[in-house]
Amino acid sequence: CYRDKKLIGWASTRIQLFVYSAGAVGDIGDPAGIDALARYTVPDKKVLEPFKDLIGYDPRSRHDIALAAIDALNAIGDPAALPHLKRAIVSGDIPELKGFSPKFVYQARWEAARAFARLGGPAQLEEYKALMAAEKVPDMKKKMQEFLPMLEVAKECGDQAACYGRHLKGADKIKAEKAAWQLGRMGKGGAAEAELIAGMKTDNIELRNSIVKSLYRVCSKKTVDAVNAQLTAEKNRKAPEYKDAHFKMKALRAYAGNNG
Prior knowledge:
This protein has helices at 2-28, 34-38, 45-48, 52-57, 61-76, 82-91, 102-105, 107-119, 125-134, 138-157, 161-168, 173-183, 190-199, 205-218, 221-233, 240-259. It is mainly alpha-helical. It is globular and about 50 Å long.
């Protein structure tokens, strides 16, 4: 009926606002947001109460909420988020999604594993291996194995920007992803910015978007010149993915011009 459709519309808007807001908290990068976000990685009924109408209509909305919080915890970039991501790896199943696909049940868990690997440092390598060894779901364990090289890169590179830069430009996409995030956590300007600028030339648009996010954290005025040069070089690339990437690069250019 009309009333039910209106309720679903309101609930859908609430979730969209939550996803946007969680992303904004992640982009701001303030560790003060960690505890608030953590409640949504493995949410209880009280936390989900504002979204219950849409979740009742489409339980997959629970996954959208969890994923927004998980991604934001990684984006904040503070190790204080790691215990919350670990909890989501272990306890983040969504049983209500079994009717859609058995894989949907644990999808939020493997996304938490990816966020843990993106954020973790050398000290988390053995901890992650222990989690992987204890995992009972074969497909989940396989996903965790896929992300393991991120933490191996962290152990190899430590705080060496050149090492991460080598992986950023390498053929291994998983290692490059780790390098893109980690370089953004290494301090403003200097070697980290230079490595990210060099890596921004990649045709892997997903990786480039991660690089752009990291450049917000470490950019100087040098990023403005680099973005201008790349936009000029790619002016004839009109595919939708490049249009989106160029829009994000222009936003970065404006930020770097005012804050670099």
